[in-house]
Amino acid sequence: xxxxxxxxxxxxxxxxxxxxxxxxxxxxxxxxxxxxxxxxxxxxxxxxxxxxxxxxxxxxxxxxxxxxxxxxxxxxxxxxxxxxxxxxxxxxxxxxxxxxxxxxxxxxxxxxxxxxxxxxxxxxxxxxxxxxxxxxxxxxxxxxxxxxxxxxxxxxxxxxxxxxxxxxxxxxxxxxxxxxxxxxxxxxxxxxxxxxxxxxxxxxxxxxxxxxxxxxxxxxxxxxxxxxxxxxxxxxxxxxxxxxxxxxxxxxxxxxxxxxxxxx
Length: 264
Known about the structure:
The chain is mostly beta strands. It has one domain. The chain has helices spanning 76-81, 88-97, 242-245; strands at residues 2-8, 11-17, 20-23, 59-60, 64-65, 101-109, 125-139, 142-154, 160-175, 179-183, 189-193, 203-208, 214-225, 228-233, 236-238, 251-256, 258-263.
């Protein structure tokens, strides 16, 4: 299971992705992971003990950043989302726009199920970052959000370096969009048309990679209950992220669903 959590006090949202790794029939079997470097800090990870000792120690980011101060007051964007008298589509739009802001981000990737004899899961992957989300376009039926990583890193001598700015992923939202660009595996995408009644009242979320190439697209509907707004997606195929395809060849597809929740 993979989960993304981004929290910023006044602007907090979460993206949960249930990811299923499909084994590639033509890929060679992966060998065991390299051992954790001596002296590496052990971090608690919710997982079953498939291995002993450092064989289950997480891999991923090892740097430390500057302290983060969270803004605990409700944001102006969230307050606009709570205004009475909004139409259904406008309340949805305000929920999407409320994702803009600055975030302390964490990332966890955990394998739990295998579908071949002798399967041994890889070590969990964990990382962190500080991320800015900007509104690129804001139209009545279309909203585009660009993510940027803005990192400050503490060096071995205690000095702080940065900011290091890196373009990250992008998400485009369209209202009642009946044409999806879906991933079919092995770096292949195809257009899929949905009947208008299936996407009535729904928003598509198209996710793009750092080079603006497509990643996946799904559709779902926003639900607004009290002071919480949630969007749940359809199930989609996704290509492997670089952190996986650069070191592994035993699978080539992730199958996942997204859940985004906007809270105060």
